[in-house]
Design a protein that fits this description.
mainly alpha; 2 strands; two-stranded antiparallel ribbon; 9 helices; 2 domains
Length: 265
Amino acid sequence: MTASYISISYTQLALAALFILINIGLSFALNLGLGKSLLIASLRMVVQLLLVGYLLQWVFTLRNPILILALALAMTIMAGISSVNRTRRRFTSIYWNNFVSLFCGSFLVTGFTVSGIIQVHPWYDPQYLIPLLGMILGNSLTGTSLALERFMEDLTNRREQVEALLTLGATRWEAAHQPIKEALRIGMIPTINSMMVMGLVSLPGMMTGQILAGASPVDAIRYQIVIIFAQASGTAIATIGVVLLAFLSLFNQKHQLTDALYKQS
Protein backbone atom coordinates (compact mmCIF):
# COMPACT_ATOMS: atom_id res chain seq x y z
CA MET A 1 0.00 0.00 0.00
CA THR A 2 1.32 3.42 -0.92
CA ALA A 3 1.71 5.68 2.13
CA SER A 4 -0.37 8.74 1.37
CA TYR A 5 -3.00 10.85 3.04
CA ILE A 6 -5.41 13.67 2.24
CA SER A 7 -4.32 16.88 3.93
CA ILE A 8 -7.05 18.81 5.78
CA SER A 9 -7.13 22.57 5.31
CA TYR A 10 -8.32 25.19 7.82
CA THR A 11 -11.43 25.66 5.66
CA GLN A 12 -12.27 22.00 6.12
CA LEU A 13 -11.69 22.35 9.87
CA ALA A 14 -14.20 25.20 9.86
CA LEU A 15 -16.72 22.96 8.10
CA ALA A 16 -16.16 20.29 10.76
CA ALA A 17 -17.08 22.90 13.39
CA LEU A 18 -20.64 22.71 12.06
CA PHE A 19 -21.04 19.50 14.05
CA ILE A 20 -20.46 21.40 17.29
CA LEU A 21 -22.72 24.25 16.17
CA ILE A 22 -25.50 21.71 15.67
CA ASN A 23 -24.97 20.46 19.23
CA ILE A 24 -25.02 24.00 20.59
CA GLY A 25 -28.20 24.73 18.63
CA LEU A 26 -29.87 21.62 20.05
CA SER A 27 -28.82 22.63 23.55
CA PHE A 28 -30.46 26.03 23.19
CA ALA A 29 -33.56 24.58 21.52
CA LEU A 30 -34.06 22.01 24.29
CA ASN A 31 -32.93 24.38 27.06
CA LEU A 32 -30.24 21.95 28.22
CA GLY A 33 -27.84 24.64 29.39
CA LEU A 34 -24.88 23.00 27.67
CA GLY A 35 -24.32 25.56 24.92
CA LYS A 36 -21.75 27.67 26.78
CA SER A 37 -19.84 24.63 28.03
CA LEU A 38 -19.73 23.11 24.54
CA LEU A 39 -18.50 26.36 23.02
CA ILE A 40 -15.78 26.90 25.63
CA ALA A 41 -14.67 23.25 25.48
CA SER A 42 -14.53 23.34 21.67
CA LEU A 43 -12.50 26.56 21.58
CA ARG A 44 -10.09 25.29 24.22
CA MET A 45 -9.68 21.99 22.43
CA VAL A 46 -8.93 23.67 19.08
CA VAL A 47 -6.44 26.14 20.55
CA GLN A 48 -4.71 23.49 22.66
CA LEU A 49 -4.41 21.00 19.80
CA LEU A 50 -3.14 23.60 17.34
CA LEU A 51 -0.52 24.74 19.84
CA VAL A 52 0.47 21.14 20.50
CA GLY A 53 0.69 20.50 16.76
CA TYR A 54 3.13 23.35 16.23
CA LEU A 55 5.03 22.37 19.38
CA LEU A 56 5.35 18.76 18.21
CA GLN A 57 6.64 19.90 14.82
CA TRP A 58 9.46 21.62 16.68
CA VAL A 59 9.94 18.77 19.17
CA PHE A 60 10.26 16.18 16.39
CA THR A 61 13.31 18.04 15.11
CA LEU A 62 15.04 17.78 18.50
CA ARG A 63 17.78 15.28 19.17
CA ASN A 64 18.48 16.44 22.72
CA PRO A 65 17.26 13.84 25.26
CA ILE A 66 17.27 16.37 28.11
CA LEU A 67 14.81 18.69 26.34
CA ILE A 68 12.62 15.76 25.29
CA LEU A 69 12.52 14.35 28.82
CA ALA A 70 11.78 17.84 30.17
CA LEU A 71 8.74 17.99 27.89
CA ALA A 72 7.68 14.49 29.03
CA LEU A 73 8.02 15.59 32.66
CA ALA A 74 5.91 18.69 32.00
CA MET A 75 3.21 16.50 30.44
CA THR A 76 3.22 14.29 33.54
CA ILE A 77 2.92 17.29 35.87
CA MET A 78 -0.07 18.60 33.92
CA ALA A 79 -1.67 15.14 34.00
CA GLY A 80 -1.21 14.97 37.76
CA ILE A 81 -2.82 18.38 38.27
CA SER A 82 -5.71 17.50 35.97
CA SER A 83 -6.28 14.22 37.80
CA VAL A 84 -6.58 15.98 41.16
CA ASN A 85 -8.80 18.72 39.76
CA ARG A 86 -11.38 16.07 38.81
CA THR A 87 -11.81 15.02 42.45
CA ARG A 88 -14.00 16.77 45.02
CA ARG A 89 -11.97 15.96 48.11
CA ARG A 90 -8.38 16.74 49.00
CA PHE A 91 -5.63 15.89 51.44
CA THR A 92 -2.23 17.48 51.95
CA SER A 93 -0.05 15.35 49.67
CA ILE A 94 -2.64 14.60 46.99
CA TYR A 95 -0.86 16.46 44.16
CA TRP A 96 2.47 14.84 44.94
CA ASN A 97 0.88 11.39 45.21
CA ASN A 98 -0.76 11.78 41.82
CA PHE A 99 2.43 12.97 40.17
CA VAL A 100 4.52 10.12 41.60
CA SER A 101 1.94 7.51 40.58
CA LEU A 102 1.54 8.84 37.05
CA PHE A 103 5.28 9.28 36.65
CA CYS A 104 6.06 5.71 37.70
CA GLY A 105 3.28 4.15 35.65
CA SER A 106 3.74 6.15 32.45
CA PHE A 107 7.54 6.39 32.35
CA LEU A 108 8.11 2.71 33.15
CA VAL A 109 5.61 1.47 30.59
CA THR A 110 6.55 3.99 27.90
CA GLY A 111 10.25 3.30 28.38
CA PHE A 112 9.78 -0.45 28.05
CA THR A 113 7.46 -0.05 25.06
CA VAL A 114 9.83 2.23 23.18
CA SER A 115 13.08 0.46 24.06
CA GLY A 116 12.05 -3.16 24.52
CA ILE A 117 9.06 -3.73 22.23
CA ILE A 118 9.14 -1.24 19.34
CA GLN A 119 12.94 -0.92 19.72
CA VAL A 120 13.24 2.71 18.67
CA HIS A 121 16.76 4.05 18.04
CA PRO A 122 17.54 6.31 19.74
CA TRP A 123 15.11 5.48 22.56
CA TYR A 124 14.26 9.16 23.08
CA ASP A 125 13.09 9.72 19.50
CA PRO A 126 10.20 12.18 20.13
CA GLN A 127 8.19 10.90 17.16
CA TYR A 128 7.54 7.74 19.19
CA LEU A 129 8.20 8.72 22.80
CA ILE A 130 5.93 11.77 23.10
CA PRO A 131 2.76 10.38 21.42
CA LEU A 132 3.05 7.07 23.30
CA LEU A 133 3.56 8.84 26.61
CA GLY A 134 0.61 11.12 25.89
CA MET A 135 -1.74 8.20 25.20
CA ILE A 136 -0.62 6.31 28.31
CA LEU A 137 -0.89 9.43 30.48
CA GLY A 138 -4.38 10.19 29.16
CA ASN A 139 -5.71 6.79 30.15
CA SER A 140 -3.83 6.75 33.45
CA LEU A 141 -5.22 10.18 34.33
CA THR A 142 -8.78 8.90 33.97
CA GLY A 143 -8.05 5.81 36.04
CA THR A 144 -6.35 7.66 38.88
CA SER A 145 -9.01 10.36 39.14
CA LEU A 146 -11.87 7.84 39.22
CA ALA A 147 -10.13 5.57 41.73
CA LEU A 148 -9.08 8.41 44.01
CA GLU A 149 -12.53 9.97 43.95
CA ARG A 150 -14.16 6.66 44.82
CA PHE A 151 -11.66 5.87 47.59
CA MET A 152 -12.09 9.22 49.30
CA GLU A 153 -15.87 9.18 49.02
CA ASP A 154 -16.01 5.65 50.43
CA LEU A 155 -13.84 6.61 53.38
CA THR A 156 -16.08 9.61 54.04
CA ASN A 157 -19.34 7.67 53.76
CA ARG A 158 -18.05 4.63 55.66
CA ARG A 159 -16.02 6.50 58.25
CA GLU A 160 -17.99 5.16 61.22
CA GLN A 161 -17.73 1.59 59.92
CA VAL A 162 -13.98 1.93 59.25
CA GLU A 163 -13.33 3.45 62.67
CA ALA A 164 -15.42 0.73 64.33
CA LEU A 165 -13.24 -1.93 62.67
CA LEU A 166 -10.11 -0.14 63.85
CA THR A 167 -11.51 0.09 67.40
CA LEU A 168 -12.21 -3.63 67.39
CA GLY A 169 -8.56 -4.34 66.60
CA ALA A 170 -8.46 -4.42 62.83
CA THR A 171 -5.31 -3.14 61.14
CA ARG A 172 -5.54 -0.12 58.86
CA TRP A 173 -5.20 -2.43 55.86
CA GLU A 174 -8.01 -4.68 57.05
CA ALA A 175 -10.26 -1.70 57.72
CA ALA A 176 -9.56 -0.05 54.36
CA HIS A 177 -9.32 -3.18 52.23
CA GLN A 178 -12.86 -2.98 50.83
CA PRO A 179 -12.68 0.74 49.86
CA ILE A 180 -9.26 0.11 48.27
CA LYS A 181 -10.55 -2.87 46.31
CA GLU A 182 -13.59 -0.96 45.08
CA ALA A 183 -11.52 2.10 44.12
CA LEU A 184 -9.13 0.00 42.05
CA ARG A 185 -12.03 -1.74 40.32
CA ILE A 186 -13.65 1.60 39.42
CA GLY A 187 -10.34 3.00 38.17
CA MET A 188 -9.83 0.11 35.76
CA ILE A 189 -13.40 -0.14 34.44
CA PRO A 190 -13.01 2.38 31.55
CA THR A 191 -9.88 0.62 30.27
CA ILE A 192 -11.44 -2.85 30.50
CA ASN A 193 -14.69 -1.70 28.86
CA SER A 194 -12.74 -0.09 26.03
CA MET A 195 -10.76 -3.28 25.43
CA MET A 196 -13.91 -5.43 25.44
CA VAL A 197 -15.57 -3.58 22.54
CA MET A 198 -12.48 -2.58 20.58
CA GLY A 199 -12.71 -3.78 17.00
CA LEU A 200 -16.40 -4.68 17.36
CA VAL A 201 -18.00 -1.39 18.37
CA SER A 202 -15.16 1.12 18.13
CA LEU A 203 -12.03 1.59 16.06
CA PRO A 204 -9.27 3.24 18.12
CA GLY A 205 -8.22 6.73 17.07
CA MET A 206 -4.53 5.91 16.77
CA MET A 207 -5.21 2.96 14.45
CA THR A 208 -7.70 4.97 12.40
CA GLY A 209 -5.19 7.81 12.07
CA GLN A 210 -2.50 5.46 10.81
CA ILE A 211 -4.84 3.92 8.26
CA LEU A 212 -5.94 7.36 7.04
CA ALA A 213 -2.27 8.29 6.73
CA GLY A 214 -1.75 5.32 4.39
CA ALA A 215 -0.36 2.65 6.73
CA SER A 216 -1.29 -0.99 6.23
CA PRO A 217 -4.33 -1.92 8.37
CA VAL A 218 -2.46 -4.96 9.69
CA ASP A 219 0.52 -2.83 10.76
CA ALA A 220 -1.82 -0.26 12.31
CA ILE A 221 -3.60 -3.00 14.28
CA ARG A 222 -0.30 -4.37 15.60
CA TYR A 223 0.69 -0.93 16.83
CA GLN A 224 -2.74 -0.47 18.39
CA ILE A 225 -2.56 -3.77 20.28
CA VAL A 226 0.83 -2.82 21.70
CA ILE A 227 -0.50 0.59 22.75
CA ILE A 228 -3.67 -0.80 24.35
CA PHE A 229 -1.64 -3.26 26.42
CA ALA A 230 0.71 -0.42 27.39
CA GLN A 231 -2.21 1.83 28.34
CA ALA A 232 -3.78 -0.91 30.47
CA SER A 233 -0.50 -1.56 32.27
CA GLY A 234 0.24 2.13 32.82
CA THR A 235 -3.26 2.72 34.14
CA ALA A 236 -3.05 -0.23 36.52
CA ILE A 237 0.33 0.84 37.93
CA ALA A 238 -0.72 4.49 38.34
CA THR A 239 -4.11 3.60 39.83
CA ILE A 240 -2.69 1.15 42.35
CA GLY A 241 0.03 3.65 43.25
CA VAL A 242 -2.29 6.60 43.82
CA VAL A 243 -4.75 4.60 45.94
CA LEU A 244 -2.01 3.06 48.09
CA LEU A 245 -0.33 6.43 48.60
CA ALA A 246 -3.69 7.94 49.56
CA PHE A 247 -4.19 5.05 51.98
CA LEU A 248 -0.82 5.76 53.61
CA SER A 249 -1.63 9.47 53.79
CA LEU A 250 -5.06 9.00 55.39
CA PHE A 251 -4.18 6.20 57.84
CA ASN A 252 -1.30 6.65 60.29
CA GLN A 253 1.04 3.98 61.63
CA LYS A 254 -1.05 3.70 64.78
CA HIS A 255 -3.85 2.29 62.62
CA GLN A 256 -6.01 5.40 62.91
CA LEU A 257 -8.01 7.20 60.22
CA THR A 258 -6.76 10.78 60.25
CA ASP A 259 -8.74 13.97 59.72
CA ALA A 260 -6.57 14.98 56.74
CA LEU A 261 -9.43 14.59 54.25
CA TYR A 262 -11.40 17.71 53.38
CA LYS A 263 -13.83 18.78 50.70
CA GLN A 264 -12.74 21.24 48.04
CA SER A 265 -14.92 24.34 48.08
